[in-house]
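[recover] target loaded
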């Protein structure tokens, strides 16, 4: 039997694809033999754009040369950099400029947003999450319930899915029916971190809206990966980290969304700080007592953001703006279809990710027989970098900005040899 995918064919596909060139904008980690890794872990940590090193140096120069005046002086001034950066993410998440911002980190932002959007009453107090919810989301919703005096074992419920690897609008309807009118908030992943399923967000949103349930999204694995229309879908709030597909660096500053319909709602209590206050009175240290929220998503901010966290995000979002989500998504589908084709040729492994590109992003999660972490180490030793989720899932993400068809052919051929042994 010939190996699963042909390297010459893969190389030809790379030559034909006009977006293969984006890879040159990134630093590609090296294998121990000096060759470039076939890096499939961009769903965990995206790679470093070369321009980010230069931009960080420019920001350090601005700080070093100007000190406090660097907030306002010159074209590298950073006082409103968070607002400039927010406008670069509107096309990626599908929203109005006033609906998005950057601040904090993903889990912190979910807490900040739930402080406003989780307002349980005695009758309606449950939070619904997905069967494979990311641990941090589970901890966060349980903590919110306890913070309000509830009992997580009772008040946090999971969607009762016929197949937990593929949740459907019917599963949601059935679960809500079983819990009558007790659910007030849904917090779901746009793309599930474990299965790679791209949720049918509009269908879920319409069910939740019809039952007056607030809908929040964790978009860690969706942002920069799949097309999103948060405004049109009527999502209430969302947050996302920027260190995966957005390539902004480990632990980088997060993004968030608050639907326009909530901006002027004074009943939504915010955990306020000066950065969310009207800029005209932000520095009014001895004056007003009351917080005057900005009438936009900015009204949920608390602190002034870290310059060194913002600069990498700006650089990366400019690459997205240059190539556009539509072209990147098209390339993503080409690459992931090719990866799927390879997986199907290997006996003894199977994908748990939906095959239909409309129902997945670039990540494919495969179930292996045996220990996934052991296989992950063996692959890394051979220059192929997926990541394992115990006990038996290996995740591969061919990322359109820097993965290639040759990476995929190498990855599939190596995987095929390892599982055959
Ligand atoms: C789906 C999902 N939610 C939440 C988190 C937690 O992110 P953070 O540590 O930035 O709060 C992660 C981290 O990988 C994630 O994948």
């Amino acid at each position: 039997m010939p190996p699963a995918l042909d390297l010459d064919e893969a190389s030809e596909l790379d030559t034909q694809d006009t977006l293969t060139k984006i890879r040159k904008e990134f630093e590609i980690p090296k294998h121990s033999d000096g060759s470039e890794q076939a890096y499939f872990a961009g769903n965990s940590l995206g790679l470093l754009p070369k321009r980010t090193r230069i931009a960080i140096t420019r920001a350090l120069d601005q700080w070093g040369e100007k000190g406090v005046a660097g907030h306002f002086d010159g074209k590298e001034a950073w006082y409103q950099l968070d607002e400039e950066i927010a406008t670069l993410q509107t096309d990626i998440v599908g929203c109005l400029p006033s609906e998005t911002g950057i601040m904090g980190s993903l889990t912190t932002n979910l807490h900040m947003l739930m402080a406003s959007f989780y307002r349980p009453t005695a009758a309606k107090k449950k939070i619904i999450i997905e069967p494979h919810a990311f641990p941090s989301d589970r901890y966060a919703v349980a903590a919110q319930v306890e913070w309000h005096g509830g009992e997580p074992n009772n008040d946090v419920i999971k969607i009762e899915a016929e197949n937990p690897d593929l949740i459907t609008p019917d599963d949601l309807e059935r679960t809500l029916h079983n819990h009558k009118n007790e659910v007030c908030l849904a917090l779901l992943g746009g793309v599930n971190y474990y299965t790679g399923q791209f949720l049918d967000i509009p269908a879920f949103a319409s069910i939740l809206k019809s039952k007056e349930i607030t809908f929040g999204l964790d978009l860690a694995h969706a942002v920069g990966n799949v097309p999103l229309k948060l405004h049109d879908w009527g999502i209430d709030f969302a947050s996302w980290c920027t260190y995966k597909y957005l390539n902004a660096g480990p632990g980088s500053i997060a993004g968030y969304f608050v639907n326009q319909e909530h901006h002027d709602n004074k009943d939504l209590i915010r955990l306020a700080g000066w950065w969310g206050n009207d800029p005209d009175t932000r520095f009014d240290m001895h004056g007003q007592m009351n917080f005057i929220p900005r009438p936009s998503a900015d009204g949920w901010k608390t602190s002034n953001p870290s310059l060194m966290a913002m600069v990498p995000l700006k650089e990366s979002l400019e690459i997205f703006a240059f190539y556009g989500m539509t072209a990147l998504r098209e390339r993503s589908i080409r690459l992931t279809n090719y990866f799927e084709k390879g997986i199907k040729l290997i006996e003894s492994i199977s994908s748990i990710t939906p095959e239909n590109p409309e129902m997945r992003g670039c990540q494919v999660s495969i179930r292996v027989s045996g220990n996934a972490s052991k296989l992950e180490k063996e692959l890394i030793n051979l220059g192929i970098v997926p990541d394992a989720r115990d006990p038996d899932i290996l995740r591969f993400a061919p990322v359109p900005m820097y993965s290639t068809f040759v990476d995929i052919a190498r990855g599939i051929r190596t995987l095929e040899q390892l599982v055959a042994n």
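[recover] notes: The two ends are 15 Å apart (CA to CA).
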